[in-house]
Amino acid sequence: MQLVFDDSYFMKKALAEAELAFEKGEIPVGVVVVANQQIIARGHNLTEMLNDVTAHAEMQAITAAANSLGGKYLIDCTMYVTLEPCQMCAGALYWSQLSNLVFAAEDPERGYRKMGGKLHPKTKVKMGVLGEEAGELLKRFFIQKRNLN
Amino acid sequence: MQLVFDDSYFMKKALAEAELAFEKGEIPVGVVVVANQQIIARGHNLTEMLNDVTAHAEMQAITAAANSLGGKYLIDCTMYVTLEPCQMCAGALYWSQLSNLVFAAEDPERGYRKMGGKLHPKTKVKMGVLGEEAGELLKRFFIQKRNLN
User: How much is the pTM?
Assistant: First the structure.
């Protein structure tokens, strides 16, 4: 029997957020933050709409999760994000002391691992959960964008 | 004759922002962003007040400067910040394509250079402008904090 609230379940919720970004013409990246099996924050990339390079899905979700928790540390939280975080988001997650990071697609060019960014030493990382689906969505976005230009 | 609008002039404005943070019990870091010799954004650290690890002075100033410019890239802008940026802020500055970064005090522990973060290849860096003053303010903050605990 499959657990209902497993990593795939929550990553699907993050993918739904990424699709919202897609519909707005934003690079499709989505996030949910989970504490005690409950989603306490959601976010999707809004850099174009807000004209703000800091408006990555993860940044918004960190702020929203802290508001939800009433404290700025995301200890005992899991972030599900559809793309490997960049160094900015990894740096924010470092300060948040996030307990678990799960990401779908890898970002071999701008991901924090390539760029040299560091997560908090206490953060456990799992990658590749629904990686193919997340990668397909990104690919579809960039193909569509190229065809429009 | 000394130029009025030199690096020291703008760093003093950033230090004034840092003092506002100090008065609020925040780690005293301040920023101004300058374009065409004019300050287009200011900010100071508000992580405690906002309960938000992303509320570093630089992050707020990047958002404010983009609002002021009506575009998300800080090309032809100079950021003056009283402390070496962390990897989160360096990552945000990377995306912003900031032209010039001037910082006062170095941060040998959490600064982006130690943490492995990367600025945009086009960003020119100058350090040590009023570094002693900025360092003194930080030292005074941590001494006061220690004495209160």
Answer: 0.95
